[in-house]
Design goal:
Layout: E1 23-25, H1 28-38, H2 43-52, H3 59-66, E2 72-74, H4 75-85, H5 101-108
Antiparallel strand pairs: 1-2
Helix pairs in contact: 2-3, 2-4
């Protein structure tokens, strides 16, 4: 996971289930990171590696991503790209992992903790 910057705590954040996310923003900085992570491996070979993990991304699409010519990428492509590269998804997008064990227990017991309204 990415390190949590204390300034982020001052900003309002929303939690969204990753299964609800279809696309993420893409920019030239992410393209450069992709190029660095790919290293000396060809785009064609990376496309084959993505296919081997049941993903679908052509070498032409990889080139567009590397050059920052795409504004968005599907989460499915990004996940398979990360699998093929052997890196975590948080290399490309900010992910925060939060656990609420006491909240879960109180909700399970039917205790109103005032976090959600109907």
């Amino acid at each position: 996971m990415a390190k949590l910057d204390s300034k982020l705590l001052e900003e309002e954040k929303m939690l969204v289930d990753i299964s609800e996310v279809r696309f993420v923003t893409w920019n030239p900085d992410k393209g450069e990171l992709l190029r660095q992570l790919r290293g000396k491996k060809s785009r064609r070979q990376l496309a084959e590696d993505i296919k081997a993990v049941n993903g679908d991304c052509s070498h032409q699409n990889l080139k567009k991503l590397e050059y920052g010519h795409s504004e968005m990428v599907s989460i499915e492509i990004l996940e398979s790209l990360c699998l093929a590269l052997g890196v975590a998804l948080d290399r490309f997008i900010a992910l925060y992992s939060l656990r609420f064990p006491s909240v879960t227990k109180k909700i399970a017991k039917g205790v109103d903790i005032g976090y959600w309204s109907s």
